[in-house]
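task queued by scheduler; priority normal; single chain, no ligands, no partner chains; default sampling; output format set to C-alpha cells
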Amino acid sequence: RLTIPDRPGVLGQIATRRGRLDLRASFERAHDPFGINRTEDATVRDAELDIWHALQAGGLFHYGAPEATLNSEVGMAVLQKRYQTNEAATHFLDYTMTSFNYTVFYNLSAKTATLFDFVRSNVQFEDPFTPVDGRDGDEYRLRTGLRWLASGKTSGDLRVGVFRREFDNSPVAEEGLDWQATVQWAPRART
C-alpha cells in the first residue's frame, strides 16, 4: 500500500504494520545575507547576494509496532549545496554531506517515548579554500531525548547530546553540546 502524506516531498511506503519506509526529497533556493560567512571581512562588495541552492534526498525506515516497547529507525540522507552567484568567490563553499542515522525509541506510553540517537555525517567540499584545506571530515552526534505525540495534529521532539567533528587532514577535532528541537503541527487530518 502506498500513502502520500500531507507533507510535500515525502512519500511513504507501508510494508507491514511494523515497518514504514519514508522517502524524502527537497529543494531550497536562498541566499547568505551580507555580514556573515564569505562577506564578513570582504573589502569589496559584490553586486549580488551569494545565492545558493540545496538539494536533499534520503530515506528513513521505521521498524516496530505502535504498541511495542522498543522501536527503531535507520536512515540515510544526502545534501548537496551549490552557490549560483559570485562563483569566483563562493566556489569553495560548495559541499556534499552524506548522513547515516540510527535511533532507538523506548515507548513509555502510546504518546511518549524516550530516544537514543546516533548520526554520522561525512562532509566533502568540492574545491579547496587553500592548498592545505582541511575542512573535509566526519561529524558524529550522540543524543538522548523525548518524543511526544500531543494530539493527532501536534507532535514534538527534543534531543540533547554531544557532537564531535574530525577533520581528514588534521589531528584537531571539535567537540561540544548538540541539541535539536522540532514541533510539527498539521492542521489537516492525516489519512
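post-processing summary
- The two ends are 13 Å apart (CA to CA).
- Residues 122 and 138 are 4 Å apart (CA to CA).
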